Amino acid sequence: MSFVNTWKEAAAPSKESVRLELAAEILRDFGELRFRACGGSMLPAIFPGDILMIRRDPIGRIRQGHTVLSLRAGLFCAHRVVRIENRSTAVRLITRGDALAMEDPAVSEDEYLGRVIGLHRGRKQREISDRPNLESCVFGWLLRRSDFLTISLMRWHSLRMRLSGKAQPAGPGNREIAAGFLR
User: Which of 34, 111, 116, 168 is deepest in the core (most CB within 10 A)?
Assistant: First the structure.
């Protein structure tokens, strides 16, 4: 048993962690899941409030450019695969949010849940591209280098959602971002 599992068992589970564990079990058992994104790490591909559609694909079918969902430290994380490490006994995915400068720690087979196959934004359904177009790549590059641009985009999106009447209560990720605006 790993240290992480021992720590999880010893800690009193929060309502949110229980919900995420249940959602992960549903995905593992039934192969599909939808959930609302709550952070800005995948801008401009995924905005807070988008409904992500996840499908359970074997980790061996994942390719560079796919957006995958993982569960680690009691949180869901949907980030793009930038590199795949094939060890003799296991595959590990190296991911990064499109708006983030640093890569995430490697995603193990145990942490991997599935691949993001599409999203609903408002009334539109969109596919998540495995290869973002040039415009998205340039915009992601700018977001990684400019906190001001990222904050402005998040505020613009929030205002747009409120004016359209589609605003959702902020999730934990958005509360952290909003707290950063007030500092």
Answer: 116
